[in-house]
TrEMBL record:
Pfam family, one: p450
Database matches in Gene3D superfamilies: Cytochrome P450 (1.10.630.10)
Family per record: Belongs to the cytochrome P450 family.
Domain of life: Bacteria
MF terms (GO), sorted A to Z: heme binding; iron ion binding; monooxygenase activity; oxidoreductase activity, acting on paired donors, with incorporation or reduction of molecular oxygen
UniProt KW NAD keyword: no
Keywords: Heme, Iron, Metal-binding, Monooxygenase, Oxidoreductase
Protein name per Swiss-Prot or TrEMBL: Cytochrome P450
Amino acid sequence: MDSTPATPYRMNPTGGCPHADNARLLARGAVAEVVLPGEVEGMAVLGHEALKEFLAHPDVAKGARHFTALREGRIAEGWPLTTFATVRGMTTADGDDHRRLRSLVSKAFTARRMEELRPRVEELTDELLDGLGRAVEDGNGVADLRQHFALPLPLGVISELLGVDVEHRDRLHHLSNQVVATDIAAEKAVAANRELVAVLGAIAAARAERPGDDLTSALIEARDEGGDRLSQEELIGTLVLMIIAGHETTLHLITNAVRALCGHRDQLDLVRKGDASWADVVEETLRWDAPVSYFPFRYPVRDLTVDGTVIPRGTPVLAGYSAAGRDRAAHGPDADRFDVTRPGRPGTVRHLSLGHGAHYCLGAPLARLEATIALERLFARFPGLDLALPEAELSRHSSFVGNSVRTLPVRI
């Protein structure tokens, strides 16, 4: 056996389809050394079982104070991944702080609240499908499903939850795209972060003057009650996280599911015949083509051995969701196959694409609700829907964090 240490994998800032590289990395092992943009050394946990263990490990933290290179001043200003590490909110908090921040927004995502939201999601879905039909007519039979449907649905829902007026939404999506981009220049990254904070600060100020029945007003009330419930910085940080995570992930999920079904008509037929459900489509898409490929960051608070590999204390670690979703050790020799009837393996969760442990995605019920309604109504309205370009010609998202395509031209 070759004992030569593997060369660290250099993360591609421009993104691209991750699956071929993931397979090569998984062949080496469940944990890989990586080089992040700016020559920052890190690691990625790729294997399903290793990632499951790592995400729930008590000696793994999310707070940026545990990021050694950042604490020592070795991260340049404008580093494209800075926001992931430093934004003040539940995704960068640990222990009591994490529980406090999560509790302030958790009521917006309960099962009861999701059922209350269902009629509005259905109404918005139908409105957008009307618009998609008009866009196809105007576009000589072709329209961008991502622009006209997959984006405005989750963006509209999370904006209504947060009390964000319509005039701000396109700008917030643009800035969100820049914040999660991994190929962005330093000066653009700094400008995008500043503008995003400024726009959300203005939205928060407007809600403070005119409170409503929305999550931003509730967070402002918590801030203004004094004590240690929520600081102004945490308020804005929470809004940053909510607006980005609240629409980008579901946008990719819907887009990837449509691509998967158009490329696997036999699987679409199974759903139409009742041999699988739309919920099955959503779960298999989450596994097979995770909307988030590599999520930054977690940091071991001590040297930690995961699947035989030592991850040094303070190392920034990526959660390799797209790799774990196709890990053959967990999902069998046909892990690369899109199969909506795939049974769960005994003792194994179906996928980790919405996280695991204390930081499990708070918005998972909303993402599932939106995607299930969107797919069912889309294919009911347009049963002949298909891609207008071959899969290989679709332009990929420019990030190794988000995993999807920039546009999705379709014929209906």
